[in-house]
Design a protein that fits this description.
heterodimer; A: disordered C terminus; B: 21 helices; globular
């Protein structure tokens, strides 16, 4: 799927077709990693020792960081769900409409 | 550590003992942190493996098939610059110079990024060049092209090696692995994900790394501010350090003639840093521009640096603020005794010292993963731009022309492996002879200094001749070198204007800014002079490369779908500049 703008340089007989459209969606990776990290930190945040809490100036940082990472991970997963990657670059459609 | 190519990350420990070493500091890493690190680095390699199936052509491998959405390339654009040397160096600058360090972000980056997106990107992306040197080939001649392609390729490999060595030093200090083990393992990870996944693998990892490093640094700022009594408390306590009350005012002491600001006078800051150095780095460094060229269309390419400018505005909160917090909380940070030996941790250790002080296991693992990822990204960005320039600009243009695309895809992969091997060699040389590396980097910084002058003339003056391009670059490089070797003899560059025969107190940042100005002026003067006596290119050959000479093959602007209002480059760029302006008044 060569970019439609590039008609001047598009594939000659020697050039194989670009496979760029097969690239996976990074939002799934970010969403998955941050959800996993978020769970790990949040759970450990329930068992924070008094000395760890004191070290962090009285803040239960694992709990708060865990919750923050869960929110970010959730954001990427929901975004991916609402507007999945389009295979063909088409003119933008309103968010949430079916495009595949 | 002076990295010629990266504006502002030139942090030098007082009196040229610039090393990212942390002799006294060892992190208390436990099983929980190791699990977090293991998950992260498994994913790093997995991204490379999964990106592999999207590679069928050389452009898929070297330019991510020009298919990525703007938010991905925009974050990668900023992430490629947000290497660990930059993060640690900017925190160090914050501790040493105070809020004046903001100049490296606001005046020293954002205007250039907006200029790249709004003004220059149509020439780069619209002309379908695959690299920055290729633009010089089409605009000028092979001599200009080779001068730029060779110096870029060599500098990129070298910077990759220096990043690798810095990473090994940090791993050695914080975790305790031997230097050579760290070098081999880190290089192995980078090799795996960019040889398999190409630029897509590199960019996807940069995007992931951006979020992880932010997640690692935010806790430091929150806990740090809490423990010093908030922002007001920090300000109060910094006032009582050697930095003094002016450290929270970015423009104080910048009067021309009798400067006292740690970054010198406003001419150097605005023209040297804000104009020549910043525009030169952000608009002509292929490691940056490449991210925009991998975007899926012109609008996305234009938005790449514009989207990247928003995080850039706010990153100082994650670097300068921790630097200042470390200054008040870490005893004797950056202090030297009379003989010049350190009595405390070096400034570069500001962030690792705070990690050690504040973070419990878990949050520590996240911060460490972010930091190590940022080091690897610094190396990967350089290798993934090196392989593209070497394959297209050197191999395909001069050595083996006219083969099938599959051949150049193979060459690209081999060159990637070779680049990493050379990087490893460089890292080992750096570990034995760090002075040699500093000199070589300095040499390359001369080549970079005049680049923006040549590009701006190239894009806006169609009369500028092919040989003017070449001799302008040569003259600018000589100008930069001359200022470097001659500048410290000038009393004006010493605090209070008092010349110090031992050359120990000169303001190196200010000399750096004025050196860039010298290079710019020399380049423009020689370019104009040579143009007067040589023959210009026929205008037909400049189509799409110069302002006012449209490309007849370009699609009719009326048929290109108009982007929605929120994707308008002008709106994005204008808003970004507006935010910087407001913030600049707040921190004046």
């Amino acid at each position: 799927m060569v970019d439609p703008v590039s008609d001047a340089t598009s594939a000659s007989a020697d050039t194989p077709q670009s496979a760029a459209s097969k690239l996976f969606d990074i939002r799934l990776i970010i969403g998955g990693l941050f959800t996993l990290y978020g769970l790990m930190l949040t759970i450990s945040g329930f068992f924070t020792s008094a000395s760890d809490r004191q070290k962090a100036s009285g803040i239960n940082i694992n709990l708060w960081l865990g919750i923050g990472m869960l929110v970010l991970g959730g954001f990427f997963l929901v975004w991916h769900r609402l507007s999945p990657k389009r295979v063909e670059p088409t003119p933008d459609q309103p968010e949430g409409t079916e495009s595949q | 550590m002076s990295l010629g190519r990266t504006v502002g990350c030139v942090h030098r420990e007082p009196r040229r003992r610039g090393r990212l070493s942390a002799v006294l500091l060892k992190l208390d890493v436990n099983f929980f942190d190791w699990t977090i690190l293991a998950i992260y680095f498994t994913l790093v390699v997995a991204i490379g493996v999964m990106a592999r199936r999207a590679i069928a052509t050389s452009e898929d491998f070297l330019l991510a098939g020009r298919s990525l959405p703007a938010w991905v390339t925009g974050i990668a654009f900023i992430s490629a610059n947000l290497g660990a040397i930059e993060i640690l160096g900017m925190a160090a600058n914050g501790a040493q110079y105070g809020m004046s360090t903001l100049h490296f972000y606001w005046i020293g980056a954002v205007p250039a990024m907006v200029f790249l997106g709004l003004v220059m990107m149509p020439f780069y992306y619209g002309s379908r060049v695959r690299t920055v040197p290729e633009f010089l080939l089409r605009r000028f001649n092979p001599a200009t092209h080779l001068f730029n392609a060779l110096s870029f390729a060599a500098a990129a490999v070298l910077t990759a090696g220096v990043n690798l060595f810095a990473l090994a030093l940090v791993i050695n200090a914080l975790i305790g692995w031997p230097i050579w083990v760290s070098i081999m393992i880190s290089a192995g990870f980078v090799l795996a994900y960019i040889t398999l996944g190409g630029l897509s693998g590199a960019i996807y990892n940069e995007v992931l790394q951006f979020f992880v490093i932010v997640a690692g640094l935010v806790p430091l700022v929150i806990i740090g501010l809490h423990s010093v009594g908030g922002y007001a408390g920090l300000k109060e306590r910094v006032t009582h350090t050697a930095l003094g009350a002016n450290s929270f005012h970015t423009w104080s002491g910048t009067a021309v003639g009798h400067w006292s600001n740690p970054l010198g006078d406003w001419i150097g800051i605005v023209m040297g840093l804000g104009f020549v150095l910043s525009f030169g780095y952000w608009t002509t460094n292929f490691a940056e521009v490449q991210r925009a060229l991998s975007a899926k269309d012109l609008n996305s390419a234009q938005r790449t640096p514009l989207i990247g400018s928003y995080p850039k505005i706010f990153i100082p909160a994650l670097t300068i603020i921790p630097g200042l917090i470390a200054l008040v909380l870490v005893p004797k940070l950056g202090q030297l005794d009379k003989a010049g030996n350190p009595t405390g941790l070096p400034y570069n250790d500001a962030i690792p010292a705070l990690m050690n002080k504040f973070l419990p296991n878990g949050a520590l693992g996240i911060a460490l993963a972010g930091l190590l990822a940022a080091f690897m990204a610094g190396m990967a960005a350089n290798i993934s731009s090196f392989n593209t320039v070497f394959t297209y600009d050197i191999w395909q243009t001069y050595l083996v022309k006219g083969r099938r695309d599959g051949y150049y895809l193979k060459v690209g992969r081999i060159v990637t492996v070779v680049g990493i091997l050379v990087g490893i060699g460089t890292a080992f040389i750096a570990s034995g002879y760090s002075n040699i590396m500093n000199y070589i980097q300095l040499l390359f910084s001369y080549f970079n200094a005049p680049l923006f002058a040549t590009f701006i003339v190239a894009m806006f003056w169609k009369r500028a001749t092919p040989w003017a391009g070449f001799w302008g670059l040569v003259a600018g490089s000589i100008g930069a070198a001359a200022m470097h070797f001659g500048g410290y003899h000038i009393a004006y560059f010493y605090p209070g204007g008092v010349y110090d025969p031992s050359h120990l107190t000169d303001n190196e940042q200010m000399l750096n800014f004025y050196g860039a100005l010298t290079a710019f002026v020399a380049d423009v003067v020689v370019t104009v002079a040579v143009t007067m006596v040589t023959k210009p290119k026929p205008v037909a050959e400049l189509a799409g490369l110069v302002w006012g000479v449209p490309d007849p093959n370009a699609p009719d602007p009326n048929t290109v779908p108009k982007p929605p209002w929120w994707a308008s480059p002008k709106l994005l760029g204008g808003t970004s500049l507006g935010i910087v302006l407001v913030l600049s008044f707040i921190f004046i």
